[in-house]
Amino acid sequence: MVRPSNFSFNPQTAESNAFQRDPGFGTEEINRRAREEFEKMLEELEKLDIDVEVIDEPPGTGTPDAVFPNNVFSTHPDGTICIYPMEAPARRRERAITVPRLKGSRYQKCLDLSGFESKDMFLEGTGSLVLDQEHKIAFACISSRTSPALVDTWCERMSYEAFTFSACDRNGNPIYHTNVMMCLGGEFAVACLESIVDMDERTRFIEKIRQTDRELIEISFDQMYAFAGNMLEISSRGGIRTLVMSKTAKRSLVPEQIEKLSAYARIADFDIGTIETCGGGSVRCMIAELF
After folding, report:
1. Residues 178, 179, 182, CA angle at the centre, nearest 5°?
2. What is the domain range of residue 250?
3. Which of 33, 88, 207, 255 is 20 to 30 A from 105 via CA?
4. Residues of the chain with pLDDT under 70
């Protein structure tokens, strides 16, 4: 996780992110609240016996979204670190915060796709790619931040099967990141099926999830806008599965959904309202897994 020091509303990302809103108060107050939310979330994760490695964002770097490191890099069990091309110029500066800390030390192999920025082709980490590690499937909904050609390139290099589809918000605009409309746990999947407008694609998506032997738990548009798709299943030091999400997401779920999810993992929720509102991302976006 990256401890924020420059967090603010980023107009460069707002055009393609319908989940992002200006809260109407100043940058200094936004940053203060975001730091408080981060520290509280970190404290609660540590109480759950979950290992967290924190990188401090240096002040004055002009990186308002550094609190979302999962878009910049991903790590993999074979010792690979992947570095991704980012659509917003301000987000490209985030690589200098996180990548030198990891590349070449614990991760000896590197897949660096950042050069595709010069061709206006983007693939924003595990925001763009929702990965089924067991079955080696990369789910990706196509948007300006998720190039289908780069999905194929990544999958070819990482020996994954690409599963691309279209998903739109209520206004018919492409959903900017796959991980706001779906998440995968070890034995379940959460997805906003109504965002997949094409019925043939929706059927194909449902069948692919079923082939992975997961229970599919559907969420609505309202729940997706509350970041109920932006969850992540992680494990504690003792191997306890924990499904992390925001309080906004938890409040949007109905008892039946909570009961189903609780059968697979304990639920932990965090109050990150400022980060969600200004950044247009939630708990899953704040965590980059270190394998």
Report:
1. 90
2. 2-286
3. 88
4. none
Cα separation, 245 vs 230, in Å, equals 7
For the beta carbon of residue 204, count every other beta carbon within 10 angstroms. Answer: 13
pTM of the predicted protein model? 0.96
Output DSSP code: residue 243. E
Question: Which domain CATH number covers 82?
Answer: 3.75.10.10
Q: Is residue 238 part of a domain?
A: yes
CA angle 133, 137, 138 (to 5 degrees): 100
Task: Write the pLDDT tens digit of every residue in 176-224.
Answer: 999 999 999 999 999 999 999 999 999 999 999 999 999 999 999 999 9
- Token pair recorded at residue 217: 């738990």
pLDDT digits (tens, 9 = 90+) for 38-64: 999 999 999 999 999 999 999 999 999
Is 184 exposed, middle or buried (CB count within 10 Å of its CB: 0-12, 13-18, 19+)?
Answer: buried
Q: How far is CA 190 from CA 22, 88, 180, 228, 282, in A?
A: 28, 28, 10, 8, 15
DSSP-assigned beta bridge partners for residue 243: 233, 267
Q: Is residue 205 part of a domain?
A: yes
What is the rounded CA–CA span in Å between residue 120 and residue 142? 14
Q: What one-letter code names the amino acid at 192?
A: C
